[in-house]
Amino acid sequence: MTPLQTVDVLVLSLLAIVVYALAGAVVARDARERNVKKPAVWGGSVFLAMLLGTLFVPNQTLGAVVGGLLVIGLYVVVRD
Predict the structure, then answer these.
(1) What is the pTM for the complete model shown?
(2) Three-state SS string across the chain, please?
(3) Which of 12, 14, 35, 51 has its CA at 20 to 30 Å from residue 65's CA atom?
(4) What is the Cα–Cα distance from 17 to 20, expressed in whole angstroms?
(5) pLDDT tens digit sequence for 50-79
């Protein structure tokens, strides 16, 4: 792997982590506004589900999307 490829991988990995963190922050903020118990746990769960989906599913993007959507879907059901 050339140094340029290494930089690309690192930048894309950092970008993915930032996107996961933003998705978790949006859920945590919504939970806080709706007075759901432990909003930080919901946000952290979304982040963790997306990260683990990326790490353990062969199709990394699909794993992150499905993991995130499952937790967000559970949150939407519980919050109402």
Answers:
(1) 0.88
(2) CCHHHHHHHHHHHHHHHHHHHHHHHHHHHHHHHCCCCCHHHHHHHHHHHHHHHHHHCCCHHHHHHHHHHHHHHHHHHHHC
(3) 35
(4) 5
(5) 999 999 999 888 999 999 999 999 999 998
